[in-house]
Amino acid sequence: MIKAKQMQRPQYVLVVDDQEINRDALGVILEDTYEVLYAENGREALSQMRENAGRLSIVLLDLMMPVMSGFEVLDAVRTDEQLAHIPIIVLTAEKSAELKALQMGAADFITKPFDMPEVILARVGRIIELSEGRALISAAEHDKLTMLYSRNFFFEYANRLYHYHPELRLDAIAMNIEQFHSINALNGRDFGDEVLRTIGGEIRAFLGETTGIASRFEADRFAVYCVPQPDYRALLDRFQQRVNGISQKVSIHLRMGVKPWRAEVEPILLFDQARTACNMARGDYQNPLMIYDEDMRLREMLNQRLLNGLIPAVEERQLRVFYQPKYYIQCDPPRLVSAEALIRWQHPELGMISPGEFVPLFEGNGLIGVVDNYVWHEAASQIARWKEKYQFTLPVSVNLSRSDVFDPTLIQRLRELIESNGLSYSDMKLEVTESAYTDDAKTVLDTISRLRSMGFQIEMDDFGSGYSSLNMLSDMPLDVLKMDMKFIRNIENSETDRRLVTLILDIAKYLQVSVVAEGVETEGQLELLRAGKCDLVQGYYFSRPLPPEDFEKLIERELTIKRGE
To answer: Using CA atoms, how far apart are residues 346 and 352, in angstroms rounded to an integer?
Structure first.
C-alpha cells in the first residue's frame, strides 16, 4: 500500500523535547504519516520554526526544557507574525501546566507518557485540519493586497456589530481613487498595487486609533465602518497626504462619501448611500468629500425614477427633440445653414425635464445610447420631412456619445438610418465631445475616420474644455470645432477670453476646419466673433432650441429671404 504521505504534499511536524527517548517515541508514531523534524530545546525549536515557517504544519512542544522552556517559545511565537500561524500542541506530564499553555496560545496538549499512539495521531491530525481550515478562511477573509476584509466578510462583521452592539453608532465611509484605471494604464499595475497597499496601510493605522472595520471591495473601492469622526475632511486629507508621498510624478486624487449613522438603517443601505455620495464627488477636485443628506436622498430617488422611466419614455414618445439653429455670420444678413438636435423629456408627472437632469445620469449608467438612438431616428425623419416639404435640405447635428463610439454595430446602424430615410450622409452631422477622444484614442480615431470616409461631417463638441492636447488635434478626423460657450460669455469684458477665442480660431484656421461658437447671446459677442472670422454661431441671440413646428418658421423666413434675393 502507498503511504498517505507519498500520495499528498508532505506535511511537516516539528517534535521538540530535550529527552531523546521522547523524541524517538513520537517519531515512531508520526513518521508513517508525516515528515518529522526534531529539536532538543526551545532555542533550537525557534530556529527550526523560522527556517521552515512556510512548510511546518504543527509543532509538538515539550514545556520543561533547558536553555529555553516551552513557555518561552509560546511567548515568542504569539508575538511573531512569521510564526503565529503554526499550531502548537504542548507535551507535558504536569496537569497544572496545561491551562497556562492553552492561555498562551497552545492549540491542544498531549500527556506524557506517550502510551496511546492512535490518540496522538488523531489529535495531531485534527489540529492540522482545523489550522488549515482557518488558513483558508483567513485567505478568503482578507484582501491579500491591503489586508483589509474582503467584501463578504466585511458585511458579515458589520451586520454583527449592528445587531449585537446597538450602542455603537457607526458611520459608513466609501472612498475611491479618481481615474484609477488611467493610473494603472499609464504607470503599470505594480504602481497601482502600491497605491492600494498604501491606502490599505493608512486605513489600518487609522483603525488602530478608533473603533471600526474596513474593506477593499474590489479595484479601488474602499469601505470603512467606524464611530463618527469629528472632521471627515481632515480624515480624507490624511489619506490624501499619504498617497501624495508615493510619487512626485504621478497625481493621485481620492474622493470620499459619508453616510452618518441612522437608527434602524442596516449597514448595506448605509454603504449604498455612502457610495452614492462618493459618486457625486467624482471629478470634483475642489470638493472631493460628500456627506449624504436629505437633498441627496431626494436626488437619488429622482434619479432612480428617471432610470426606471427611460424605456416607457421612449415607447410612449415622452422624449422630444428640439432644434437650435446655426447661422453663418460672414454675410449680411446671417444665413440659416444647419441645426443641432437637442433632447427634452416631457414627463407625464414631472413636466418638462432638461437634459442636464438626465443626460449625465444616463451616461453614468450606460443608458445614454438609448437616448442617442432615439434622437438619431427623430432627427433623420425630421430632415427627410423638411426636405420633402420645403425642397430645402437643412443638415442637423446629433450627438455621438463615448459609449456609441465603442458599439460594434454603430456604423451599420447609421448606414441603415441614412438609407431608410433617403438622406445623404452629409445631411446628418455627428458631434463627438472632446473628452471622448482621450478614451482608447486609437479605437475612437479609427471609428470616427470610417464614419467621415462614408460622408458624415464630424464636429468636436465642447472644444477647449481641457482634455485634448494640440498634438492630438492634428490626428483627429474633424470638419468643425465647436467652441465651448464658457469662452464666449465674457469676451466683451475680458481681454483674456478674447485672446483665447482668437487662439482657437487660429487653431481652426491651421487645421482648415470651421468653427461654431456656442452660447452667443448678445450683438456685441456676435460682432466680435464676426470680426475674428468665426464662421458659424448658435445661441439665444438667434433662437433658443425650438420644437419642429416652431423651427419651421425659421426655415420659411430663410426661404423668403432667398426668394427676395
So the answer is: 4
